[in-house]
Every structure is written in structure tokens, then in C-alpha cells.
Amino acid sequence: MTHLNHTIQEPLVFFLLGIPGLESIHLWFSIPVCCLAVATILGNVTILAVIATEPILHKPVYLFLRMLSSMDLAVSITILPKLLAILWFGAGHISAAACLAQMFFIHAFCILESTVLLAMAFDHYIAICDPLHYATILTDTVISQIGLASVLHGFLLMFPFPFLIGRLSFCHSHVIPHTYCEHMAVVKLACGNTIPNRVYGLTTALLSIGVDVLFIGLSYVLIECAVLRLASHEARAKAMGTCGSHICVILISYTPAFFSFFTHHFGHHVPLHIHILLANVYLLFPPTLNPIVYGVKTKEI
User: What is the SS3 string spanning the chain?
Assistant: First the structure.
């Protein structure tokens, strides 16, 4: 008897639809995506090259910036080839293994990038609130340990996802109404009990990005208190100027992320193409704008 259920362990193929309802303008939409892709690659490669070749930039804050640029490039490389194939050729077919891999790396790199932003906030906190011990606290060894911890944090949190997806059956549609293999977009196609997937996905978001945002906010509250205690207006302006680039990057990174998250989970009446566009803004804009912000606002770069 033919078995009607298909699980993700079988040679299953998904189809990424792109932006539902806007298929007719996919080709036009590819133009800004290409511009963002070129700007992302040029900007982040330039940041990495400048930091690597300029001895004056071999400092903790710029080493963290190098990590951030590496994550931006990694996210872009993970999403852009398939996204452009969909927009140009309608080539949305993707194997289950490739879909799982894309899902794993996109979410892992986003978690890792959030952890790096937290590390940069910690760097600014030490630089302003405890400058005399800055060099002894943020040594090369400590920075390496923070980088390793960030990688482990991102990949360990994402490690259960393939197994949680792998237990599901996909017996109805294999069409994913998205431009990439986003976790919840795939889970919604499953026929079985998806509560563990939904709970773990929400828990992961809260334990990673939620906690990072909480501690970043706490760092800047303490920084603001320290700055207000400075007697000189020039000293206060210089201290806040030190944080200016990082604050811009935080707003660029987290604002579309929160819009996308809350729209996806609670905006049930929001059109699907708005969900998809917000999810793409969340992944495409920060890697493009981050190197521009640091390139413009950081005199050394």
C-alpha cells in the first residue's frame, strides 16, 4: 500500500515561493536586492581589510567590529544566492537537506551577530565606566574567548532545530511562502504536532536576542549614568560620541527584527507579503548599513 505521509528524512523537495502576491514584480524587486548585495560585500570586505592592515585598529572595539562584519557577510552569503535565483528565474526548488542547512545557518548567524553586539556594548561600558582597567580586562585572550563563546552560543541553541523539524511529516503542501527557509514558515507546512517546534523557537528567540537586548539596554543605562557624572560638557559629548556608531547599528539591527518577530507571531491580519518583506529587510539591510555607519562615524576607519 502506498504510504501517503512524507517525512523530511525522505528525498523531499520544497519550493520557495518568493513574495506571495508580488510574483509579477520579482524582477523589479531584484534590482534593490542586487544593490544591497553589492554594497554589503564591498562594505564589509573593506571593513575587514582596513582593520586587518591598519595596526592602529588592532584594538578590542575594532576586533568586535571585524566579528560583526564577518557575521554580516555570512548571513548575506547564506540567503542571497537562492533569493536572487528565485527573483530572476523562479528557481524556488530546494531539497530538504539544503533547506534545513539554510535555516540552521541563517538563525545561528543572527544569534551570533546579536551576541557580538552585546560584546560591543560591554566594550563601550568598560571603556567609559572603567577606563583604567580597559586594557587588563579586554585582553586578546578574553576577546578570543568571547568570540568562541558567541559561536558556541549560536550553534548550540540552533542544534535541536534540525531534529525537531526532522520528526515532522509534510503530507500536504511543500510550497514555502517565503524567500528563504525560515523556521516557522517550514513548521506551518507540517501535519503533526508542531507545539514543541513553536515553543522552542519562541524560547530560543527570548534566550538569545531577548536576553542580549536586555543586557545591551542595561549597559547603556550604566554608561548614561557614568556620562552624566562627568563635569565637562566636552567630556560627556566625547563619551557619547564613542557609542554613537554602536547605537546606530543596534537600532538598524533590532528595529526590523522586532517588527518582523511581532508581525510574524501576533500580526495575524497583516498581509503575507508584508511579513515576507519585513523578514527580508531584517536580513538584508543591517549587513549593508553597518559598514556604512562605522565608515562614516568612525574617524580611524
Answer: CCCCCCECCCCCEEEECCCCCCHHHHHHHHHHHHHHHHHHHHHHHHHHHHHHHCHHHCCHHHHHHHHHHHHHHHHHHHHHHHHHHHHHHCCCEEEHHHHHHHHHHHHHHHHHHHHHHHHHHHHHHHHHHCHHHHHHHCCHHHHHHHHHHHHHHHHHHHCHHHHHHHCCECCCCCEECCCCCCHHHHHCCCCCCCHHHHHHHHHHHHHHHHHHHHHHHHHHHHHHHHHHCCCCHHHHHHHHHHHHHHHHHHHHHHHHHHHHHHHHHHCCCCCHHHHHHHHHHHHHHHHHHHHHHHHHHCCCC
